[in-house]
Amino acid sequence: MSVLIGPMSAADVPRCAELERLLFDRDDPWSSAAFLEALAAGHHYLSAREGDSVIGYVGLVRAGDEAEIHTLAVDPIYQRRGIGRALLRAVLDHAVGATVFLEVRTDNESAIELYRSEGFDVIGIRRAYYRSSGADAFTMRRQAYQ
């Protein structure tokens, strides 16, 4: 399997929105419009591709010495192959020197383990963060790396 990670394009957006609905249907999935707004705002969004197919994506917003990961997802068919880790590391390259924050469902054990293994720590809990499902989220933080 040859996966390439590069800048997300507007052409990737319909597939990203499709993956959002597949993976996060209970938790207010991002629409195509939300992805396009993020791209238009100049935020750092990457797509993972196998051939011509988008199989994952990640998005990060940076403001000075702080950054926030907005979303990270991998098609279920391609999960557990290191693609999520590769996307995370690629987007974190854009956040060198910044403290990085993210939210993750408290019951998403595989994502929490991935984030912990890349230096993130739980610093708080946001009750009913995901409005549609009412699920809680951990706020996680990774201290700035140079």
- What is the ordering of alpha helices and beta strands? EHHEEEHEHEE
Beta percentage is 35-45%
Computed CA radius of gyration, to the nearest angstrom: 14 Å
Global outline: globular
Count of separate structural domains: 1
What are the main properties of this structure?
single chain; 146 residues; alpha+beta; Aminopeptidase; 4 helices; 39% strand
Give the arrangement of secondary structure elements.
Elements: E1 3-7, H1 13-24, H2 32-40, E2 44-50, E3 53-63, E4 66-74, H3 83-92, E5 99-105, H4 109-117, E6 121-130, E7 135-142
Parallel strand pairs: 4-5
Antiparallel strand pairs: 1-2, 2-3, 3-4, 5-7, 6-7
Describe this structure in words.
Helix content is 27%, strand content 39%. It is an alpha+beta fold. The chain has a single domain, classed as Gcn5-related N-acetyltransferase (GNAT) (Aminopeptidase).
